[in-house]
Amino acid sequence: MKQLSFDVVVIGGGPAGMAAALSAQEQGAKVAIVERNAQLGGILLQCIHSGFGLKYFKQELTGPEYAQRFIDRLAKTDVQVFLSSAVLNLTPDKKVTLSNENGVFVLDAKAVVLAMGCRERTRGEIKIPGDRCAGVLTAGLAQHYINIDNECPGHRFVILGSGDIGLIMARRLSLEGMKVAGVYEIMPYPNGLYRNIKNCLEDFGIPLHLSTTVTRVIGKRRVTAVEVSRVDEKLHPIPGTEKVIPCDTLLLSVGLIPENELCLKAGVKINPRTNGALVDNDLQTNVPGIFSCGNVLHVHDLADNVTAESERAGASAARFAREGKLPAEWTPITVKCEMPMGYTVPTCIRTRKRAPIFFRVRRPLENYRIKVQSGDDVLLLCKPRDYKPSIMENITLPESILKKAGNEITLTMEPA
Amino acid sequence: MSTKEMICTVCPNSCHLTVEIKDDGTAGTVKGNRCNRGSAFARQEILCPQRVLTSTVIAHTGKGDRLLPVRSADAFALNLHAKAMELLRHTGVSAPVKMGDVVIPNILDSGTDIVASCNVD
Ligand SMILES: Cc1cc2nc3c(=O)[nH]c(=O)nc-3n(C[C@H](O)[C@H](O)[C@H](O)COP(=O)(O)OP(=O)(O)OC[C@H]3O[C@@H](n4cnc5c(N)ncnc54)[C@H](O)[C@@H]3O)c2cc1C
Ligand code: SF4
Hints:
The complex is a heterodimer of chains A (416) and B (121). Chain A has 416 residues and is of the alpha/beta class. Chain A has three domains: 2-119 and 257-323, FAD/NAD(P)-binding domain (3-Layer(bba) Sandwich), CATH 3.50.50; 122-254, FAD/NAD(P)-binding domain; 333-415, no CATH class. In chain A, 22% of the residues lie in helices and 35% in strands. Chain A has nine helices and 30 strands. Chain A has helices spanning 15-26, 63-75, 123-126, 139-147, 164-175, 194-201, 261-266, 303-323, 399-403, and strands at 2-11, 31-34, 50-52, 61-62, 80-82, 86-90, 95-100, 103-114, 118-120, 136-138, 156-160, 179-184, 208-209, 212-218, 225-230, 243-246, 249-252, 256-258, 270-271, 276-277, 290-292, 333-337, 341-345, 348-349, 355-361, 365-374, 377-381, 385-387, 393-397, 408-415. In chain A, strands 1, 2, 5, 6, 7, 8 and 21 form a seven-stranded mixed beta sheet that branches. In chain A, strands 22, 24, 26, 27, 28 and 30 form a six-stranded mixed beta sheet that branches. In chain A, strands 10-17-11-12-13 form a five-stranded parallel beta sheet. The longest helix of chain A is centred in the C-terminal third of the chain and has 21 residues, at 303-323. Chain B is of the alpha+beta class and 121 residues long. Chain B contains two helices and ten strands, in the order E-E-E-H-E-E-E-E-H-E-E-E. In chain B, strands 8-5-6-10-9 form a five-stranded mixed beta sheet. Chains A and B meet through helix 2 and helix 6 of A and strand 5, strand 6 and helix 2 of B. Residues 11-17, 34-37, 42-44, 47, 51-52, 86-87, 115-117, 140, 143, 164-165, 168, 259, 262, 294-296, 300, 302-304, 306 of chain A line the site of flavin-adenine dinucleotide.
C-alpha cells in the first residue's frame, strides 16, 4: 500500500467537493479530491437541463455547464484529483483508503471534507405492494440512462412523486417522444419547485394528481400497469378510489438519502432528522477535522447553495489543517428546533459573530414567522411569510442575538 | 378584460403573478412580481412562451461515441421545441468540443444557437 499525505482530502467530486477543494486550496492548503466516477461533476453531469447558477453566477446554466466552470477552475490549480477511485474507508485519525485500477492507497489527511452526495430512495424503501417485475426504477437512474448512456428505459411512463427529479424527467421523456401518463403525489401539495411544475408538466400537458399514490404494481415480467388510489388526510389509500393506469415503466421520485456509510466508519454522528452528519457552524462534525457539506450533509434543491456551503467547509478544513484545531473561545450554543420546522444545519454554534442557519419546514405554511428562543426569552421574531417544504430556507443570527443566547436556542415557526 | 394567474419561472423565487389581459389579447398590468423581470416574463408568456431547450447529441470521439449535452443559448419559442428536437436527434459532432461551441447556428430561424454544455476531448 502506498501512502500519500495532504492537508485536506475531499471525498466526492460533485459541486460540493469541487467548491470545498477550491476554497481550501485558496487558503494555501495542499488538497486532494477523490471521485469514484471517471469525471468530476457528480450528479450535475446528468442534469442537462438549465436551472443552475442563478444565485452563484447570476446566469441560468445547465448542470454540465455549472460543473465545467468548476472543472476549469480546478485545472488551473495544483489540487490533485484521483478519478475512478472509490473511498473504501475513513478512520477517525483521518486516513482515507481508496481503491482504483492501480491498487489500494492510503491518503493521510490533516482534515477531511465529506462530499459524497446522496442516493435515491427505492421501491423497497417506500414499500409499494404488487408484482416484482421489471420496469420500476428511480427517476435519477432513468435520467442517467437517457442523458449519459443513450438508452431508453421505457415507452409509457407513470411517475410517482413530484420531487424535482421526477418533474425534470417528465419533460425530458416528453421531449424524447415518450408518453408520460401522469405524475402522482401522495401529499396534498407538490414537492418540487413551482417553476418545474410549470415548465415540465404544464408546458407538456402532463397531469399532476395530488393526494394520490401508487398502491399496486401490475405485470408478469414487465410492468403493464399500475394501480393508483386517492389517500385520506392520514395518507391512507381510500378503498373504492382505485384506478388502473396502463404503462410499461414506473419512475420513482420519492426522495434522496445522504450517502453516509463512510461517516459511520469514522465515528461521525448522524442527525436522524437529515440522515446527514451533525455539524457546527464551521460544518465540522463531532470528529475534529472531519467536515461535511452538500447533499451528504442535507438534501439541497439548488446547486448554488451547495457551492456556498461547501466553500465554507473547505475554508474551515484548511484552517484546521493549518492550526490543528478551530478556535473555541466561546461555549457552544446547542441549536434545537420544533415542528413544523424539520431540522436545522448546524445544530451547534461555536461563534458569537454571526451564524447562518439552514432549515426546512415539514409542511406548507402560510403567513408564519420564525421565532428564536432561549429558555423563555424570545430573542427574535421574523417578518411573517409563506414557507414551502420544497425550499431550503435560511436565517442568519447576528452577533447581538448570539451574545444573548446562553447555551441553547430553540427555533420554531408560529402563525402570525 | 380578464386576468390570468401564472408563476414567474425566471428565478427560484417563483412569484405568483396576476396578469391583466386586455381585450386585444395582450397583457396589461402585472401584479405580484418582486422584480421587473417578472412583468417582462408575463408579457412574453401571453404573447408567445419562450423556453430554453436542452437535450443531447452524439459526439464522435477517438474512444467511441458518447452523448454531448447541448442547450439553446437563449430561450426561444416553445412551439418550435418539438421540431428542434427532431433536428437534434439527427445531429452529430466530432470531438474535441468546447463548452459554448455552436452545434446548430440559428436553429429554425429562432435567432438562437444550439451550443455545447461541456467539453469533450
Ligand atoms: C435530477 C436533479 C435535478 C436537479 N435540478 C437542479 C436545478 O435545476 N438547479 C439546481 O440548482 N440544483 C438542482 N439539483 C440539485 C443539485 O444538483 C445537487 O444538490 C448537487 O448536485 C449536490 O452536489 P453534491 O456535490 O453534494 O453531490 P453529487 O453531485 O451527488 O456528488 C457526489 C459525488 O461523490 C462521489 N462519491 C460518493 N461516494 C464516494 C466514495 N465512497 N468515493 C469516491 N467518490 C464518491 C459521487 O460519485 C459523486 O460524484 C438537482 C438534482 C437532481 C438529482
Ligand atoms: S418576478 Fe422577479 S423575483 Fe419573482 S420569480 Fe420572477 S424574476 Fe424572480
